[in-house]
Specification:
Structural class: alpha+beta
Distance between the termini: 7 Å
Order of helices and strands: EHEEHE
CATH topology: Alpha-Beta Plaits
CATH class: Alpha Beta
Shape: globular
Number of domains: 1
Radius of gyration: 9 Å
Length: about 55
């Protein structure tokens, strides 16, 4: 299972990318998760200030 970004809620702050141990998240206008790299550690969910990431 890969985490999902709720694009309407994402403020592109980059906090999720900063805590991702696999560099699976990139941020431009919104965060994007690379499913091939994501290990489902869920660190990004706890870090997101706008609750824009779900399982």
């Amino acid at each position: 299972m890969v985490v999902k970004i709720i694009e309407e809620e994402c403020v592109a702050c980059g906090a999720c990318a900063d805590v991702c141990p696999e560099d699976a998240i990139t941020v431009d206008d919104v965060a994007v998760v690379d499913a091939d790299k994501c290990i489902d550690c869920l660190a990004c969910i706890d870090e997101c200030p706008s609750d824009a990431i779900t399982e």
